[in-house]
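Q: Could you write out the predicted structure for this multi-component system? I'm mainly interested in how the pieces pack against one another.
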Amino acid sequence: MAYTEEDLKKELETKEYEYGFVTDIESDTFPIGLNEKIVQAISKRKEEPKWMTDWRLKAFKAWQEMEEPEWANVKYSKPDFQKISYYSAPKGKDKYDSLDEVDPELLKTFEKLGISINEQKKLTGVAVDIVVDSVSVATTFKDTLSKKGIIFCSISEAIKNHPELVKKYIGSVIPQKDNFYAALNSAVFSDGSFCYIPKGVRCPMELSTYFRINQAGTGQFERTLVIADKDSYVSYLEGCTAPSRDENQLHAAVVELVALDGAEIKYSTVQNWYPGNKNGKGGVFNFVTKRGICHTNSKISWTQVETGSAVTWKYPSCILKGDNSIGEFYSIAVTNNYQQADTGTKMIHIGKNTKSTIISKGISAGKSQNSYRGLVQINSRAENARNFSQCDSLLMGNKCGAHTFPYIEVKNKTAIVEHEASTSKIGEDQIFYCNQRGIDTEKAIALIVNGFSKEVLNKLPMEFAVEAQKLLEISLEGSVG
Amino acid sequence: MLTIDNLHVSVEGKPILNGINLDVRAGEVHAIMGPNGSGKSTLSSVIAGNEAYEVTKGDIIYQNENIIELAPEERANKGIFLSFQYPVEIPGITVTNFIKTAINSNLRARNEDEMPANKMLKKIREIAQLLEIDSKFLSRSLNEGFSGGEKKRNEIFQMAMLEPSLSILDETDSGLDIDALKVVASGVNKLKNKDNAVILITHYQRLLDYIVPDYVHVLHEGKIVKSGGKELAHELEEKGYDWIK
Amino acid sequence: MPLADKLVSSFLAFELDIDIQSPVHNIRTDAIKSFEKLGFPNKKLEAWKYTSLNKVLKEDYTLFSKKKNVLDFNKVKDFFLDNTESYKLVFVDGFFDSFLSQTSHDKADVCIMSAALSKNKYASVIKKHFNKSIEKSDSLSQLNTAFSKEGAYVHIPKNIVLEKPIEIIHFATGNESALMLQPRNLIVIDEGAQVEIIESHQSLTDNPIFTNSVTEIFVAKNAHLDYYKIQNDRLTSTLIDNTYISQQRDSNAKIHTFSFGGKLTRNNLNYYQKGSYINSTMKGITIIDDKQLVDHHTLVDHANPNCESHQDYKGIYSGSSTGVFNGKIVVNKIAQKTNAFQKNNNILLNDKSTINSKPQLEIFADDVKCSHGCTIGQLDQDAMFYLRARGIPKKEAEALLTYAFANNVLESVNIPSLKSKIKKIIANKLGVKLGFDL
């Protein structure tokens, strides 16, 4: 691992949210407010075909009749949807043919984010699609991928160049009316990533999207669609950051995964949106809908490390429709200061011999509230379904809360479902033991937290695992004493 | 190396140690014996800096510095090692990872360079061999599910890795069968040299057959009531603790 | 007229029948207002997500039985404990039956609510405890309060150990074509006192019965309670059992719930810990089939340090039956050193049976040990084979393993005659003739 103790020390000295800078690039931003005209204008700006415009309008109609959900264990003042600008793109050319055309300021942003595109190109072999505010600005490695028939581009490009695929699959896992935020996203999404892996192809590198909110007062509504055709494999990484701002920024993404027969999708997220300051001011509202559908013999694995956002509302789910399909959910959610997270998963067993595993690790510190909410549903014809769930909470200090809301619904007698949950704390004896070996308290906590989260960290691709470990430490700074 | 001067310690207002005096020089092995509840473990915890214990009076001078106010990790950085009577479990952290973190934390605190990975690995292997530790053991979670003997052996392994100046072995022998005890003792003996010192805290004389002390002290009701050479331990074994009361 | 409206409008008629000068009458009036506002619970409420009362509420229930019906002891003796001396509080169609009952005022008050609500000597206890632990937002509890009139009243004074158990049985004769019953029980156990109570609801015909029962229990310092609920009613009966237990320091309250009968049974079991070093235990065995539904909702409110709670619920479901378990453990900020454990193990024996389980933890203190485990599975097939290979028929083998699965809950029943009675019910329910004392 390239990451040294020295790096860690530096990280620990950086008490502020380290990605909280604003890049001064000229943006093309829509006026605030939302109505049919704005939806049409977004679609027009993106030169979309009529079917897409209609699809958006249908979503908008549905959204107008929906109410913001209130069942989650989070409290916040609801965003005023008429005070948000629904489109913001870095000004400049609409399309970038190569990286050389990208605004140098923007490239600097990526450097600060730790994504040096050129470096990545050479070293790690990760293909990256970068979404700043609402628009996909750069996709790397296109050529290498296209030789294998893999399509990896922004969703706007896909709508233009691969309409048959988009038309067939968009909204097929998460319908426009699925929920309030998904409907909103369906109406106003401005960009996002699209990925198609052809039959039998094993994607040779990690595909990665980096999301960044930059412009003030904008909402980010990206839409990701990943289709893994029969017997294919892809590992997909998603990273998120935002500048520190006083007001709350809204992020309402939709991610749809389609794993056709025999395919495998591994989707990893390191979410580090701005969490607000230590008094709970500002921060991102992260209201995300993520769901995958598994056809016969396929597998979808969600791994997430959630350390950012003021409020998180997110349940990456699997519909295990095909026989023998497998769904997995590995999650670490850390909340500190005034953060609130309500996150978990749904595993819907429909096919025979379907299996699901849920490992959730919640760490609460400061005055934060951390909830696991999950559903395991075994339908009546899902013979021999298996589920194992484990939800562990770690509390640090006495002002935070840890909550578990697991829903288990079983309608088939051949099902075997096991659910375990526990709550523990970092023992003073554990800290003293580490101290005695010369490890200071902050580092001791990092060690213990890493140990607690290990089962999930192990599921992340290497580059992400290192970053995630660093994030865990930074997120918990100042949480003791 | 270590001078304890008139040390008084309380826990939650209740006095446990009532004026301990002790001098330990480099190259020496001291054994502190005493019946249950005499304050043996309290003494070791206090030297290591456990904040659950309140020093009400007296000083602990280590390498010419009063360490009473120092945090536990600062004392560890200066070379004080405590082998715990009941080592804690830390799930998810491997023995290797833990010792790596500890060594580098100590080196950093002393403004020294971190140990390169290959050197670390070599040292881990050598010491594991010395203490007859299976390499599988090193990739297990720290103390989690370890047997009593494994926990104690792990403590000595860490001691060997950290190369402390002053080692305090708190009841390291209790719970060990004779074979494990021999391995642990031979490890301690091999690590022993003219520059470091060892304090053995024990209830039983058995350990002292394998690690021979220069001095034996008997602790009773928070005070050292008798000091002598290694023969004192045999005398105690024969006559029992009632003899000193 | 919908049942809710019918209930609200008959409150006036109810008032004609009772002493409206009584100090508790204001409580009743507030409660009916509250019920009027809340209405019956529906599936939109999180707490009623899996259980619908719609069908139950459609019946045209008689709200007050017109006359006292007399029961012959020989016809109902099977519902009492065999060969066991006990105090008995027996109610028939909502009226107290003094012939079947055996009350007491010697060492303790084992008597009835109507007396306690009207007589001066009980006024201070009523004032202190009546309606004090009720969840105000629970419409069914409010409804019961509004019509509270009759039920069991038990008061065990300081340091009294009641050596005989108390049996509380609510019979329904079926003389009305459909009857709604709302018994209201109050159990007060003073400091250092100890008591065992067995409660059941039993209808004697197949006419629909809808029982909405509330039991308030106060367990003072160092007091002990052992409470057993036997739910083995006919398949035409619905029972909503709201039980509220308020505990003081060093006290110990155990509730066992055995659910085998009834069409729909909803248990709302709420524990409030009001001191330190409290032990709260709730255990249950549910064995149902056909179209039965049993819904266990438990709440343990850990509000003080150094307390414990233990929950162990076993469920065996066959036919098209549905089981619901919703166990909520709340550990408040000051409740450090709490140990809270919850287990819910279920076996589904039929493709049409369903289990919905929601074990829920809400933890606000850091130095606690809390865990819950929930499993859903089948009988161990290897064990089945082993038993059958020894010549035990399939049905018996199944019954044996089911029994073994539920056995640890039965183990903690302290009254031998009750234990054997429950074993008999289980054997009946499983359709086998086994002694289970193998």
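A: Regarding packing and overall arrangement: Chain A has twelve helices and 24 strands.
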